[in-house]
Structures are given as structure tokens and as C-alpha cells.
């Protein structure tokens, strides 16, 4: 007898098609049968050792977070309710060009310091791995939800070139090609870049194109955080489209937003650019989060020249009065490339987390507010905080536009990604709320997407980009990564005032046929594993 039958569910199967009522039978981690309109047809209903009454609930495929920063959280926090409770059954990590494999001892230490604001210091993690394959093997010991990995181009460059702003020598480029090929062979699904973060931003287009050729040869895709989301946003998008077309590599645009005042109302221009490329045969997808503010590290705003050489050199430059004044001028007058070519507005920069608990008073306030309380210029406050906390502070950047968010999420190649940073006392609520916020706010309350469209964007669209032949749909023989939610009540609990509140209306989540959320509570199941690239 099978393990589980989910009785009388309203199935939204991920294809975008109309929903239907059915009994869905799960056994051995897979969907083994779907009996449509079972009760009305009067047929012999399927039986199992356990029956779950899904009356009034929607059954859908598990949600795929196409842009997650859970690289260490999956190892640190077996509970991981921040994602499991949202119905996320697969996260794509290794984002924005910086993560923890492939590394050597030197690079690992540098990367840990560079992205401590994203993932914590890692002092509580046993970094026994060095290669992509070893990291994926570590995930295979058991994690809360599944995870796929992108090779981080910035980490690869740090490994082969270092943190200097210069062109890679031919032998260094050869090594980067080899390292990327090894990572793809070991199971990565593609490559990411952070082209406003060091050292990835120092790569010229020709270098990126060569690495993308390697990725494409293994059936992977390129996921860039491109060179500007502000003053040069459209040019930066156009650059990525041209680069990947030359390389013959599929393109997935990370957190594809149009931010800052210069881009208010300009989402249609981005979508027209993408539609033109798609019509010409380009393979493009994108992800967004359903909120207007962004989230990153405070140090990420600094100009690229100030970040050259790695974290220690950044701190030395900040400590030097003359150099710090040059940094201030770039930030406040010229428009730093780290701040997307737009002069920083300190009243939009809210501190969301710090590494040193003694600095907690800054959290939840903008830099301008803290400066006013201290009676000093905001740059003095920001500089002092960066030095005191050794580059660890994270920020919310309130620079988005609601009309752009809505326009982009409607596009046919759109997928959902939280870009959720789980560190800090007051993280962005997208880390805990992205997927129920789509379903509750943008589907039920605003009608920006239909329920069927939205579920497809969160399930089958990303599964297709990841080339997963048995995930992303409610189909027989597909992996039983499933979510049951109440369409009338599903909602994000997290908000900007209280960002760590779990959602409502998602009582059941299954990963590989095992309940990780049951009756609205996290079980002790560690059913997730590394999801490796499907061979081309």
C-alpha cells in the first residue's frame, strides 16, 4: 500500500492551466498517481497508509527560490523554517558571484570576510570542503530543503587572479576555465556573477564570455548581478544579453529590478529590450522579489577602486583620512559604481544588521537618522560603522518603485527569488515572506497575476531554467516536492517592522515526499539534498 494519499485537493499543477480537483498519491518520494474528480466520478478511490484531507486547500508543486543566500544557513540551521514554511522546496545558492566553493585556504578566508554580512562569519561551520563537489556532498548529508548551486565567478577570480583590478593573464584565464569546468562536472547548474562586487566586477566582458562558453558546454546558465541597477541599468542589461548571446549561453537575470529615481516607470523599456532579444532567439529568464527595497552590505556601496585588494585593504583605505574623503566624494557627489552610479541618499540606507552586538543601536535606523542623533555628517557615521564593525553591516536600500515591480513580475519569463539574507537583527522581510506575499498580496488582493500564472512562475518556470525533468509540476512520476496552501488566507507574516514572522495559510509542505511542514509546524525531517545539474 502506498504511503500517502492527498484527498480532494484543488490541484494547481504549475503548468498555468486551470485547476482541477483530485486525489494525489505519493509513494517512495514521488507522485505515483493522480485521480481527477475522484469523489464525483464514484470510482474506487485510492488508498494509502495515511490519508490527508485537503478540502479547501490548493495543492501545487514546491516553490523554487531562484535567488537564495542560504549557503551556510542550510548547514547552520537544520530547522530553516524561514524558507520551509514559505513552501520553498528548492533554493538556488552560490549567488552574486561570491560563495564558499571552489576555494583554497587563502581564498576561503577572504571570501568569509567579504560576505560575512550575507551569511555570518562562519565561525560555527566546519569548512571541510574546498571543491564544488565536496560542498554538494556536504549538503547531501541532509538539509531542510533541496539546494542547487551556481559557481561563483568572483570566487573563481579570487582563486586564480586575486582581488586586483586588472585583466586576467592568459594562464589565469585558462585556470578559471578549468575551475568552472570542474565545478560544472561536479554538479553545479551554472555560474553567477556579482558585477558590482569585488573581485567579480573587475572581469571584462571578454573574460566573462569565455567562462560562459564553458558553462554553456555543460548545459548550464549564467546568472549575473549585472553592473548597474541604477543610472546605467538598461545598458547593463543590454551588455548581459549581448555577452551571453555571443557565448551561446542561457541567461538568467538576478533580481531584475529597475531602481532609483532615474528608473521610475522605466520597466517597460527593460521588458521591450528582453522581448526583442527573445524574439531573436535568445534564451533568457529572470527573477524578482515582490518588494521595493533592496538589501545588501553597506560596504557594497563603496567605489570599486576602494574595494580593490580585498577586505583588509578596504579597511586601510577607510582608516586613511585623505582616501576616505575620496570615497565620500565618489559616494555623495559623483555616484559610486558600487551604488549603481547614483549619488547615495543616506536617508534611504537603513542598517539591517551588524556583526558586533555592541553596535545594535544602529539597526532599524537609516544612516541619516543615526547621524542626526550623533550630531555628525552621515558619511562620518557610515565610515565609523564600517570600521567599527569591520565591514559587516547589512542594509536595506529603499530605492525601488512599485509600478516597476508589478510590470516585471507579469512577464512570461519571470520567476520568483527572495534574495533573502538571513543575517542581522532586522533582515529584509523577503527572506521570510517572498512566496506567500506573491500569493496573498499580488494574487488574491491585487490580481496582478492569476493564481495559476503565479504558481507557474514559482514552480515550472524555474524548473525549466534549471533543466529539472521531474520537478516543477504535479505529474505522475515527478518528485513529490509539494505545497498545500489556503488561497483565502495565505499571506506573509513578515514585514519591515517584524521581519522574522512566519507566514500563514501554508499548513503542509513535502520535500521528497516527506513532511517538512505539518499542521503548520516544522517537523524534524531533513529531506533536502543537493540537486545536481542534469547532463546536457
UniProtKB/TrEMBL annotation:
Keywords: Hydrolase. GO terms for cellular component: cytosol. One of its GO terms (molecular function) is N-acyl-D-amino-acid deacylase activity. This is N-acyl-D-amino-acid deacylase. PANTHER family: COLLAPSIN RESPONSE MEDIATOR PROTEIN (PTHR11647:SF1), HYDRANTOINASE/DIHYDROPYRIMIDINASE FAMILY MEMBER (PTHR11647). Residues 51-517 form the Amidohydrolase domain. Its EC number is 3.5.1.81. It comes from the Bacteria. Pfam families: Amidohydro_3 (PF07969). The lineage of its organism: Bacteria, Bacillati, Actinomycetota, Actinomycetes, Kitasatosporales.
